[in-house]
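User: quick one, fold this
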Amino acid sequence: MTTFTGKPAGELGGPWVESAEWAFRFLFFLVGAVAVGWVLSGVHRIPADSQAVVFRFGKAVRTQGPGLRLAWPAPVERVVVLPSLARQIEFHLPRLDDGTDVQSNAADSVTALYGAYLSDDPRQNTAFLLTGDASVVHLQATLFYQISDPVAYVVTGEHMAPALQRLFIASAVATVAGRDLDTVLVARPEAAARPAEAAMRERLRQDLVDAVNRRLGELARQGA
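Assistant:
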C-alpha cells in the first residue's frame, strides 16, 4: 500500500509557482499597457493652421479640422496632417536657380552670364527664356500655392512638386514669349520705385499666376 504525504492541490507553493505567478502578472500588465498605448495612439492634435485626412485601410474616409481628433489606431486608420486651406505654402523651383549646379558639372561647357551660368546642354538652361523680341532673360521665381483638395494632394504625393515645377515653367515660357525685353525687365534697381514699372511688374506676376491657374484648371477638368 502506497501513501501520498504531499500537500493538497490547493496548497501547492514553492519558488517555481511564485515565479510563474509574478511572470503572469508582469505579462498581464505589459499587455495592458501596450493595449492602452495602442488605443491612445488614435488621439491626434491637429494644429490651428492645419487639417487632417484620415485613411482607413488605404481609402480616404474623411477630413478633419484643427483640434483634438479621434481615429482608429494604426493600422486600421492613418492620419495625414496638412496645411489648412487658407495657408500659403512656399515652393522653391530648383530648375530656376542661378545655375550653380550647372557650373559644378564638369561634362558641360559653362559660360558665366550676369551672375548665372549658361550650359551647352539645353536641358540645363531652363531658367533662360526667350522673349518676343528674340532677347534672352534669366528668370528666378518662388511659387506660393494653397491646397484646395487635401485628399487629391495626399494621393498625388511625391508627384506634386515635379508637376508644379513643369506647370510653372510652361506658363513662364508662354508668358515671357508674349512680351518684349523692356516689359519683362521690370525689376531693375534704378526703376523699381517708379509707379509705371511697379505696375508692369505686378502685371507680369499676375499673368504668370493666371497662366498657372489655367493649366491647373485644365488638369482638374481632365480628372487629373
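User: anything notable?
Assistant: The chain has six helices and eleven strands.
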